[in-house]
């Protein structure tokens, strides 16, 4: 796991944007898994601004959103589909047929979840999965005790998640109790994962994810098993990490490692790639 600590929210967005811009420039990186929430909202504004500056092109990009509330139609202002339209899709040149969502009003829940899993495979799998993290350590809507091998399915939300997500609704009562979500196993199949967390309310979950045991009580902790994960945090979200000094040291030294490997490559003509910090 490559843990990057930045001073504040704005520099987290900057670092995340740089990674996304780099991956989007690679024609082999076409399928993106996307989250909703306040944390990625700033990244999406940066992506819209980057598109307007001519830095990003979404023409051949496919997207799969992580999750959707059950019982809401796509036009509902609290739906994740609506969130994505308002914050990203309406402002960039993504093709509507390349935007993939779980249907919040499916006739048959199981068939809908199978369709989504099938479609992800049909598109060649997810190249870059972007994630936020819930205060209880969930990714997608994989609440504590979710199977670490789970696939896309329906999930009952915890009272805390309902409370945390009430912002898009008139009151807590209106927040749906259920959702469809990619499973932990589905998320783990992405080729690369970028997780963002900001603010003190995420500090405990971040520490459990990065340094705690791999446990279904914090589904994000399973990312320790993935070979290519970057976690970008602000100081507040990193506050409970025990090895934070090492992560900072690593971030400072990584460019020197890249330069050292480059020099060796030039000298010996070998193809020496820096590993990542996983
Ligand atoms: C919801 C979403 C998650 C998201 C989490 C945190 O539970 N299903 O994907 O990571 O909220 O959101 P925020 O960034 O608003 O704290």
Would you give an account of this structure?
With 278 residues, the chain is of the alpha/beta class. It has one domain (2-242): Rossmann fold (3-Layer(aba) Sandwich). 35% of the residues lie in helices and 15% in strands. It contains eight helices and ten strands. The chain has helices at residues 9-24, 38-52, 80-87, 109-122, 159-164, 184-188, 203-211, 244-268, and strands at residues 2-6, 31-34, 62-65, 67-69, 99-100, 128-131, 153-156, 178-181, 192-197, 229-234. The strands form two sheets. It has a seven-stranded parallel β-sheet, with helices on both faces. Strand 9, helix 7 (203-211) and strand 10 (229-234) form a beta-alpha-beta unit. Helix 1 packs across helix 2. The protein is globular. Bound molecules: 2-amino-2-deoxy-6-O-phosphono-alpha-D-glucopyranose. The site of 2-amino-2-deoxy-6-O-phosphono-alpha-D-glucopyranose has 14 residues, from helix 2.
